[in-house]
Structures are given as C-alpha cells and as structure tokens.
Amino acid sequence: MATDAEMAVRAAEDFRIVRLVVNGEARSGLAEPRTLLVDFIRHELGLTGTHVGCEHGVCGACTVRLNGHLIRSCITFAVQVEGQEIETVEGLAPGADLHPIQEAYQEAHALQCGFCTPGLLLATQSLLEENPAPSDAEIREYLAGNICRCTGYTNIVRAVQIAAAKL
Ligand code: FES
Ligand code: FES
Description:
Elements: H1 4-12, E1 16-22, E2 25-31, H2 37-44, E3 63-66, E4 69-72, E5 85-87, H3 100-107, H4 117-130, H5 136-142, H6 154-166
Parallel strand pairs: 1-5
Antiparallel strand pairs: 1-2, 3-4, 3-5
The structure holds FE2/S2 (inorganic) cluster (FES) (2 copies).
C-alpha cells in the first residue's frame, strides 16, 4: 500500500487517485486512466476474490456490484468509479461465518474449481434481491452471463433455491 506522499508523487505523473467506497469502507488507490477496475480491485486494493477470466465482458468471473448493480469489472475503468460504491465477494461475509448464499453453494456442491464462484455469488445475491422466489428457469436465465466450465449448472440452480429458502 502506497503512503500519501508516494501517492502524491505518482499521481502527479501518470496516475490518478481514485477514491471510492468498497464493501462499506472508504478506500483509495492509484490508477492510470487505462487501468481496468478488476486490476485496481485486485492489485491496488488487494481484494483478490474478484477473478479475471475472459477479460472482454463475456464470462462473468469479474462480476462486482457498482451502486448495487452487477457490472463486469474487466470492461470498466477504475477512474470511472471515482466516488462510487463497489461491492466485491469479500463484502458478502466480512466475518468468520459464511453468508447464507455461500452456505447454500457449499451445501449444494455448486462449485468445483471455484473460479466462477465469486461472480456467481454476487449475481445470486442480486437475483434474490430482485426475485426472492425464482423458478429454475428464471435462475438459469438470470445467471446466463456467468459461465461455469465445471459444474454443468444443475447444482448452481439447486444452490440458489437453497439460498432463496434461507434468506
Ligand atoms: S473477466 Fe470480465 S467478463 Fe470475463
Ligand atoms: S466451478 Fe470451475 S468454472 Fe465454475
């Protein structure tokens, strides 16, 4: 983590100071105008739960929430979120206990390698906020933008149903 003095020097060169709220906490870091939000989150803020997959907005691995809405952080520049609010998977369960959605994924064996899981957890959170009792078809449609190479999706749908019952 850079000190304030170091940030001032680097910011005077190619970098901008980006201030934002992450998982309810005020954070700041340095970003070039071209720095992707996912790289800023992972490398500048040290929150490596957000994954980088396709890097062109297709797979959903980099999903975070911006002001409560799902976005792809691989096709968003860090400087675009200045002053705004981001939620990452780390914010789901800040303490030692799992969030009910995480418990549901664990109970349903809804992950194998886990690469897609952070994005799916946040997408599930948004789905259940919008539709607390979705049908299996509605779950599949909502999560269609989050690609999983391992599970075949059946257990993911089951996890969302379990999470819906818990919340
Ligand atoms: S890494 Fe962002 S959508 Fe695939
Ligand atoms: S669990 Fe491996 S990509 Fe989904």
